């Protein structure tokens, strides 16, 4: 018996398409560069990952949610620095007209050359803004330019006062948000890792100045505990504190959570001490004081912000990579029996945590006999009230097990001819391939227990 | 005792801001026309409405989910007809330069005049496309134009084959999706009713031609049952079948679900028989056959589509309007006692269904004594594992009840001095204002029961 993890991204891309996790956007039209659609299983899986974050954040008494619009007033981006500073340096090749990033271009004899044709005749670099620009209203002129937000964070900062007042929150408190952002990246890539349209899960925690580094440390700890619950393998994550020279202009401290993808270590989440940069900037540009009045101390101050910012699509991709395993089953208990039922003796298995798995339990009639179909469908409908439950009747039972392994279904439930008399079903476990015989009357209770147990 | 519903929209807009349901987007910068942000309670409420729809759709064995990107290949919009036909006729006033919709402009002596200055000197109408346009990649030219999707439906049609194949679905089956769409409306308005950025909940159900009108009728019934579970008052909804002349070019039959807003009857949902219009168009423009092979009948066909399309923000707004009540409490059982505890003898109450309420149970210590605070916080944390639970210790208990009424919290739970010895808490019901004394040990069970019972 041998087990290997994911070796190359293409293997995962194929599985994702074959099994309904991720499709290329507009594929029938040749696709749209760097845009991806979540298929049925991917949509559910991503939703479960989002819910895990949302619950761990907003079930705390000190954090509330928010759902701000993607379109915001352009002054927001002036204040945040995105209009002036959110740029990449681009040059044009005078020969082949390719436009490219100068800071990533190849050099020849110490001179930048065109990455497409190799010409040395290139224009001076110009700063290209990464925000997507559009026009609101019927007139396409400068007065009506708006941007698709390049980050969700600013939606939280500009709503700070409305949230604090309406929810009567006392500092320290946080605001959490999940939503789409857009960046016109010059070089997107690596499947869903770097895309122009992406989803963020951000939480900004407002604290009293002076307590900020304590809270920065606390949030590092709290976030790492969440990763422990998601099922990451040992040593697949690493943590990187930024040195003073690596810090963004708004940050007083920064800490990355990184995952080892097949294409290398990459950031999943950043935890930042943003100080009072954002509220001060918005105060300056809006003319509105964004302060907090501390009733106990009778003093006003501009809160500092500790931010935890997760790239949702990246986290989903990391969890897909992490879950992937190929297994040679010779010698594994239970595998021989499954081989006898038509299953291959190797398998691909997605080892999702049961609470994240897109399908939690699959209901399989042993054959297409109407009475077995009827019982299986009824069980599926019952279980579907509380769990994500699937029904499958095609091919041999062994082949169906392999299919469920490949989409990471923790439990398969088989209705056979004995079920008709003993009112029991066989439950087969994804990871161990062992089987239990369980009474139909206590199925919900059994499944519920198993969903929590690994 | 007298009860009145919502009379004007502005009353709701104020409540929504005051209590953290909805804020104007970028309000500190003077707002962005027609853009709104969901505050903490609004975000939770909207999420619950979406979950209600998502569950009722995707827990069925014949419907799967999808989460397609907002940015799609421009040919999608050529095929769908949006590039050529999704337009409003606009004219410019030669005198004051206002641009306006000709089909909604005032007339004088049978001639269109400028709605701003009244001038008769206006340009010939031009068709203005309602899609938001932007550029993907670093070059702003025609080759790189992309659009923000004006509807989620096309994401489902272009993924039809990938979904059907990967999920091995047999017709009839449906694909459900929730997501943002964007329309550059000339005249947005009525709070969150008509906005340029909005969220849709769409389901496209693929059927065999000939069975389409049966399925159209079935989906009308099924959708109406869902509205019954959302808590709409009697006669607040009406249903309208379109006559042959009212049908959109793609529709063979159409049926509206309308709600009576303070500003009149307006559509919440459309149920359409789209025939094979969409798959045929995409087949024609992509050159890819979008057919289904019926194994039993050994025949190929292009499926017909029954669509159910809900405006999510509209449904949320309708439910907010529907829940709003002002009540004069004189004579109401329980009200006198609350008046003795500092509560006003009138109240605003949001009568949300408990499963949709943003806060389901509020934990209130009778006073700020540390032992009462400690027990209340512990109860809140326990309940927060399964419910949306809040904690509030400021002001008199009567005032806190009124505050919870205004955000629609079904249950208030008060920890008092007797709790220390009898291990019981008082549970006060939003609608009846009656109280129960409940043992702390069976609180979860009690709350769980109540959440299902009204």
List the SSEs and their pairings:
2 copies of one chain form a homodimer.
Chain A: E1 2-4, H1 9-18, E2 22-24, E3 36-38, H2 40-58, E4 63-66, H3 74-80, H4 82-85, E5 87-92, E6 99-101, E7 107-108, E8 111-112, E9 126-129, E10 133-135, E11 145-147, H5 153-158, H6 160-166, E12 173-182, E13 197-207, H7 212-229, E14 237-241, E15 253-261, E16 264-275, H8 277-286, E17 292-294, E18 299-301, E19 304-311, H9 312-323, E20 324-328, H10 335-340, E21 346-350, E22 361-365, H11 370-384, E23 389-391, H12 397-406, E24 411-415, H13 419-422, E25 424-429, E26 435-439, H14 443-453
Parallel strand pairs in A: 4-12, 22-23, 22-24
Antiparallel strand pairs in A: 1-20, 2-3, 5-6, 5-9, 7-8, 10-11, 12-13, 13-19, 14-15, 15-16, 16-19, 17-18, 20-21, 24-25, 25-26
Helix pairs in contact in A: 2-9, 3-8
List keywords for this structure.
homodimer; 454 residues; alpha+beta; 7-stranded mixed beta sheet; 5-stranded mixed beta sheet; 14 helices; 31% helix; globular
- Span between N and C termini of chain A? 22 Å
Largest sheet of chain A: 7 strands, mixed
- Give the mean pLDDT of chain A: 94
Number of distinct beta strands of chain A: 26
Total of helices of chain A: 14
Task: Kindly report the oligomeric state of this protein.
Answer: homodimer
Query: What gross morphology of chain A would you assign?
Result: globular
- Please bin the fraction of helical residues of chain A: 25-40%
Q: Could you tell me which chain pair has the largest interface and how many residues each side has?
A: A-B, 84 and 85 residues
Poorly predicted sequence stretches spanning 5 or more consecutive residues of chain A = none
Strand coverage percent of chain A: 25-35%
Supply the helix-strand structural class of chain A.
alpha+beta
Our Rg estimate of chain A from Cα atoms comes to: 26 Å
